[in-house]
Specification:
Belongs to the sigma-70 factor family. ECF subfamily. It contains eleven helices and no strands. It is mostly helical. It is globular and about 55 Å long.
């Protein structure tokens, strides 16, 4: 999931207002635009739709930037806004979040599940090898609670490290690590395995 389609009117609107926005906004845009695009693309399965949605989100953030900066956690506020817009777009298309039928989502789930399977193999070895064909790990990923799902997709599918994931979501690194551990335990339980307390690798 690299590269983006040409700028649309949302991006052009940002460029037209470049002299009006403070450097802090552009620093925020530089830091999070690609991550937002990749997450939206995973969910929507369409590069043009994802690019348009993310650009429109940043236009809205630019309009309310003064209010954004007064938030206790601006990153968490912006992340929530993005997710609300993605959910609204999926609803308009008649699809739920974590829509398994999109090719982008399927690829992301597979990318996320591969390292999880490796972790399970390390813990359970032959037991996982026997189960993995029927374990339903892809479906189990889609059933994760929202925050657990986001952490697993951002880290395992999109490849963001713990620190970057924490910044994107507007939470602390300890929250990302504990959420990741909880997600792996839930996935293991869904497929009939029991992980110990220390199976998650720390970064």
């Amino acid at each position: 999931m690299t590269g983006q389609p040409p700028d649309d009117t949302g991006e052009q609107a940002l460029q037209d207002s470049s002299d009006l926005m403070p450097p802090a906004f552009w620093a925020f845009h530089e830091l999070y635009h690609q991550a937002y695009f990749e997450y939206a693309f995973v969910q929507l399965g369409n590069q043009i739709a994802a690019d348009r949605l993310v650009n429109q989100t940043f236009v809205f953030l630019a309009v309310i930037w003064r209010d954004v900066t007064t938030q206790e956690k601006p990153e968490a506020f912006a992340w929530t806004l993005l997710k609300e817009r993605v959910a609204a777009e999926l609803e308009a298309q008649g699809r739920p979040a974590a829509a398994l039928e999109t090719l982008a989502f399927e690829r992301a789930i597979r990318a996320a599940c591969d390292p999880i399977l490796d972790s399970f193999r390390d813990e359970f070895r032959a037991q996982v090898t026997e189960l993995e064909d029927s374990m339903g790990l892809y479906a189990a990923m889609a059933r994760l609670p929202e925050r657990q799902f986001d952490v697993m997709v951002l880290q395992f599918a999109l490849g963001f490290p713990t620190k970057k994931t924490a910044l994107i979501m507007g939470v602390c690194e300890a929250t990302v690590r504990s959420t990741r551990r909880a997600a792996k335990r839930r996935l293991a339980a869904d497929v009939g395995l029991e992980l110990g307390e220390d199976t998650d690798d720390e970064e």
